[in-house]
Amino acid sequence: MGKIILVLSLLASCALAELKWASSYDAALAQAKKEKKNIMVMLSREECPACEYMNDVVFEEKAVTSEIHKSFVPVHLDIHKDFLPEGLGYIGTPTFHFLNASGKKIGRHDGAANIPTFMGILGKYKK
Length: 127
Hints:
By secondary structure, this protein is of the alpha+beta class. It is 43% helix and 20% strand. It is built from five helices and four strands; from the N terminus they run ααβααβββα.
């Protein structure tokens, strides 16, 4: 019985670390206005090692996902598949744009970052 409780606890803690992306840029804008949060846009592409690092390492950290969900509406856009709103450019991937709830750009970060660095970036652009 103790093993079952341990397994369920581990599964629950993993589920809490999952980043829930908005379904589209427009959906992120609507949600940000409703919840009075800023928006974090991640621009990426398939087969991008730095993007995979962000998804597999940084966004698996509970402290990171908790801070994102508390302060931002995250939306992920593929530079080759999704519509990119005007003003959300990139040099490489990943590129992170931070917007207020009205869609006005308040900041940008190019490239991947380790967990402590990314937490600092989030702190800089949260409400």
